[in-house]
User: Which sequence fits this backbone?
């Protein structure tokens, strides 16, 4: 083989980095821990890392549409990280220092990147400052590589907008199977990290937007307890339900990111102060335990295992997983009689949507007003913008029915307060009661069906790759728990992941 072609193959396709000593480091599929060791032992530089991911974005993104925009300063930031590490500056050789991350396009950055939630209506807007989580990432030394694509406005514009579609980038594609469901709205974050276009990513979730794309793109997603991570500077949907969390290839990678972004933020003071009590001393990495399943009580709602495409395949696969959980020391509790729980979940779904669209108008108007410059200053402006730019935003094809329904709301009055009270009671009488009566550490469901139980109450969840259907479509297993139960969920998820090691890279 021609030596030039061999070098191209090793550096571009295999993702091997050649350092000054001539040793090799494989970037593709490398974990944060792997990268950390390679950086700190001069087997890899941050510049090489960023160059590799930029090459992969150029190679794969025209098909996958996982990245909406690349940071023009990424290589400069990588060079600075290398210089800081060489000088042994404090914090330059720990955690995420020198490691590239993609942010969902609704997370604000005060740099040359846009923050548009996938819409032309926010293209060119100028944010007043970095989002709270971005400030923490920068302090941790992470390199902001760019913005990940997403379902436009996080699915808040229209019920007709496909998951993973936005006007700026078009339709995102599942890297495992082009025809497979990519899920949303943190679609680009899941796709990009699954396809090795970046080391780690951030997504956001209101009602499934971290857990669902993680499940369908064979990656790990952590939906933190609401308030554990700041939402300041994030284009909002529902402040009562919005949360920011990691989407990564492994549980350990996701925990590295979680450790970097949790904590109090004065710009999201009420929620982050309340949730700060849940943050463990010495962080979350300590819960990556090989015996994390031992003694854990896991609830298995049997209804969640039926009704899916290839349900017989799933049933067989999950029975195998349940055997693994038992073998690792977990106590499985079959939740068979769920009549009252199911009734509460069904009644919640309609109330949840009614509450969210009221909250959306209020929160979005507040976000838009604080922008330094913006093509739109209110939800009403965004509706008009979309009509005026109907070809760009595909209004005739996808519409903007959720936008219009939200605009008709008039804030939080007596009926809305009652609605919110009903949701709080339903969460306590449904999910919390089920967990406490059965003394559960987590509820376990296939794919991301845990979402219906944990969204309205702001509870945490984690998805781990669990297998592939006969056509190659990935699916995950999800674990949900009570507020602040991230340590238990991490122990459970990590032990399951290490015992099964199911995830495989997409056949790109």
Assistant:
């Amino acid at each position: 083989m021609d030596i030039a072609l061999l070098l191209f193959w090793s550096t571009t396709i295999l993702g091997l980095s050649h350092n000054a000593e001539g040793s090799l480091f494989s970037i593709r599929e490398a974990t944060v821990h792997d990268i950390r060791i390679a950086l700190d032992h001069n087997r890899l530089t941050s510049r090489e890392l960023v160059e590799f991911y930029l090459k992969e974005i150029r190679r794969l993104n025209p098909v996958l549409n996982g990245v909406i925009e690349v940071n023009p300063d990424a290589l400069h930031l990588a060079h600075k990280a290398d210089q800081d590490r060489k000088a042994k500056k404090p914090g330059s050789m720990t955690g995420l220092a020198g490691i590239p991350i993609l942010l969902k396009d609704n997370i604000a950055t005060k740099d040359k990147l846009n923050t548009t939630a996938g819409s032309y209506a926010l293209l060119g807007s100028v944010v007043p400052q970095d989002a709270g989580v971005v400030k923490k990432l920068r302090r941790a030394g992470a390199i902001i590589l760019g913005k990940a694509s997403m379902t436009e406005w996080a699915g808040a514009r229209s019920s007709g907008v496909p998951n993973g579609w936005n006007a700026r980038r078009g339709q995102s594609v599942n890297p495992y199977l082009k025809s497979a469901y990519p899920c949303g709205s943190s679609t680009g974050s899941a796709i990009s990290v699954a396809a090795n276009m970046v080391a780690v990513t951030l997504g956001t979730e209101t009602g499934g937007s971290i857990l669902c794309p993680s499940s369908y793109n064979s990656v790990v997603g952590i939906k933190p307890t609401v308030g554990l991570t700041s939402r300041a500077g994030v284009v909002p949907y529902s402040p009562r339900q919005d949360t920011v969390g990691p989407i990564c290839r492994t549980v350990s990678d996701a925990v590295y990111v979680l450790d970097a972004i949790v904590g109090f933020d004065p710009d999201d003071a009420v929620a982050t102060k309340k949730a700060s009590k849940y943050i463990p001393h010495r962080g979350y990495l300590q819960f990556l335990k090989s015996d994390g399943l031992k003694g854990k009580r896991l609830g298995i709602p049997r209804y969640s295992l039926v009704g899916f495409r290839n349900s017989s395949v799933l049933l067989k696969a999950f029975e195998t997983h349940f055997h693994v959980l038992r073998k690792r020391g977990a106590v499985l509790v079959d939740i068979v009689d769920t009549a009252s729980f199911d009734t509460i979940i069904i009644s919640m779904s309609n109330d949840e949507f009614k509450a969210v669209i009221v909250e959306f108008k209020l929160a979005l108007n507040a976000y838009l007003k604080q922008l330094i410059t913006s093509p739109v200053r209110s939800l009403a402006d965004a509706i008009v913008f979309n009509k005026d730019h109907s070809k760009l935003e595909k209004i005739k094809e996808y519409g903007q029915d959720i936008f219009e329904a939200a605009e008709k709301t008039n804030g939080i009055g007596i009926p809305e307060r009652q609605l919110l009270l009903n949701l709080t009671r339903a969460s306590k009488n449904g999910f919390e009661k089920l967990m406490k009566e059965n003394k559960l550490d987590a509820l376990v469901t296939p794919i991301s069906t845990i979402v219906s139980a944990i969204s309205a109450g702001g509870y945490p969840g984690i998805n781990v790759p669990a297998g592939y259907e006969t056509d190659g479509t990935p699916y995950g297993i999800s674990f949900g728990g009570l507020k602040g139960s991230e340590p238990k969920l991490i122990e459970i998820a990590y032990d399951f992941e290490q015992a099964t090691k199911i995830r495989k890279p997409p056949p790109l």
